[in-house]
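Appendix B. Extra example for self-study. Work through it before the problem class; the solution is given directly after the inputs so you can check yourself.
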Amino acid sequence: MPGSTQTPQAAKTAQAIERVDTRFLETLLGYNARRATLVIVEHFMRRMAPYDLRIVDFSVLSLIAHNPGVTSRQLCSTLGVLPPNLVAIIDLLEKRELIERQPHPSDRRANGLHLSPDGEVLLRQAEETATVLEDEAAARLSAAERKTLMRLLQKIYR
Amino acid sequence: MPGSTQTPQAAKTAQAIERVDTRFLETLLGYNARRATLVIVEHFMRRMAPYDLRIVDFSVLSLIAHNPGVTSRQLCSTLGVLPPNLVAIIDLLEKRELIERQPHPSDRRANGLHLSPDGEVLLRQAEETATVLEDEAAARLSAAERKTLMRLLQKIYR
DNA sequence: TATTGTTATACTCTATAACTATA
DNA sequence: TATAGTTATAGAGTATAACAATA
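Solution. Structure tokens for the complete assembly:
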């Protein structure tokens, strides 16, 4: 333990810090939001490891499932991923045969993205896991508190 | 606009997506927390640019200010930064003469970190800016809502 | 002329192994 | 034997420039 050998009365100059005072940072919304996000992300990564899905992979699969035919460009602007960085993500999911690129009905530059049958199955399980995992991460919050929290967060980013 | 030339009645197969449906992702706490954090971080980076401080630099300076004599190791565990990655951060702040490494009173392996007079001045301004910037980022929230939001976020990570 | 998807590439952030001085 | 600080380095994530095909 740092400073655990310090005598309590040696407190004026050059004393060792027993416990770090984080009170100022904790008055900042950004600090609290980042810390909470890290906790949730940790839960997410652990629970999604069996599906070999990162957060971005899960988000992409989920958006394709709920928006069949969506384009890469639309995914980019929705998720805040830059186009060059989405290419590898899409390539990998297609190589795993979870999604398919299909010709876009009205724009020959673009691809419409669709889930494969395997992708449907995997995503259904992953979305279920995501819901369970969130209950875990927010275990100390009541249902009403969770609802309030989501509403307030949305007020910030919408 | 993607799909803006689509006729509304061509809706059954291979239709183009007009607007991406994010309703499922928005039921997830992790998604909302990440999106809100990104908004706040954006505000932060823009407002802290004049001080040439990243979030981690600001956090380190603030913790040193409120915990004079704190060690690198303590900063690492408080902020979730790995020791090798903190070295360059501390080096840079010391090169800018914002902080000083001083001998630790009871452990010759460690350094006690302290703000220089210049560091004190800069941090005072930066902390003030951080408070203002948060009011900006959370402009759509009342004071009571902000308080609630912080409390709920802390319930997740504490 | 602008946009979609893509390649190449650079930069930043995060993670791991191993070393030294000291506890 | 363990820990604080450090170096070197690898890997993941994020960014910009430029190109072909199409709008």
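Self-check: Residues 118 and 145 of chain A are 36 Å apart (CA to CA). If your reasoning did not lead you there, revisit section 3.
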